[in-house]
Write a structure and sequence with these properties.
Strand order of the largest sheet: 1-5-6-7-4-3-2
Mean pLDDT: 84
Order of helices and strands: HHHHEEEEEEEHHEE
Number of helices: 6
Number of domains: 2
Strand content: 15-25%
Radius of gyration: 21 Å
Largest sheet: 7 strands, antiparallel
Shape: elongated
């Protein structure tokens, strides 16, 4: 059941399997494009040399950014892609519609753009400030998020946000983990156990960049 204010329009029910499939496809396209571009940068000088181009610094120069792009892609995949974590959260928490999403700021990192946001109900105050990263590795802020989004999880621990329409999925974690420690300590055993099962019972962010948690 959605947590909505009277008069608030709620988008149609989210198909979790479809959302996961769409985000995995998005990740595949992102990686395929990067790897193809890197392969061209690396292979083109070799092909040109074999067909008789003179061996100069300018011929081999594209190989360096090609290798760098491959390394950076692997780096982002390791630290920024959160699809497995999102699936785990969505298997333990239902999606609920929140009518207000406010993006406070964003930070560029090697892993992807990290946003600071608040998700709440219109007229509601005291929502915790969250960090968010696109689970499929995209850097672009999802269009339409300011009109509300589906959220699964327990925000003093973390969660997942799905934007209606695009089905863009963001992994969430409290921006100030220590500040919310007292609220987590007040949680009953059932809430704590559920957060542990969903993989959000431990800090998933450490400044200035992202790590897998723990």
């Amino acid at each position: 059941m959605s947590e909505i204010s009277p008069g608030t329009h709620t988008p149609g029910v989210v198909d979790v399997d479809q959302v996961m499939k769409q985000n995995y496809n998005g990740l595949f396209k992102l990686l395929a494009g990067r790897i193809l571009f890197a392969a061209v940068l690396i292979a083109a000088p070799i092909v040109l040399f074999r067909v008789g181009a003179p061996s100069t610094i300018f011929l081999v120069l594209p190989i360096v950014p090609g290798i760098f792009l491959l390394v950076l892609t692997a780096y982002r995949l390791w630290g920024g892609v959160r699809l497995v974590q999102c699936r785990k959260v969505l298997s333990h928490y239902p999606l609920q519609f929140h009518s207000r999403v406010v993006k406070k700021n964003s930070q560029w990192t090697e892993y992807g753009n990290v946003y600071e946001i608040k998700v709440s109900m219109r007229g509601e105050h005291g929502a915790p400030l969250m960090k968010a990263i696109n689970a499929a590795g995209r850097r672009r802020w999802p269009q339409g998020a300011e009109n509300g989004a589906w959220v699964a999880g327990d925000l003093v621990f973390g969660g997942v946000m799905v934007v209606p329409g695009s089905n863009a999925m963001l992994f969430l974690n409290p921006a100030d983990w220590d500040k919310l420690a007292s609220r987590r300590e007040q949680a009953d055993a059932e809430r704590i156990a559920r957060a542990e099962q969903a993989g959000i019972s431990k800090r998933n962010w450490r400044k200035p960049i992202l790590f897998w948690g723990g």
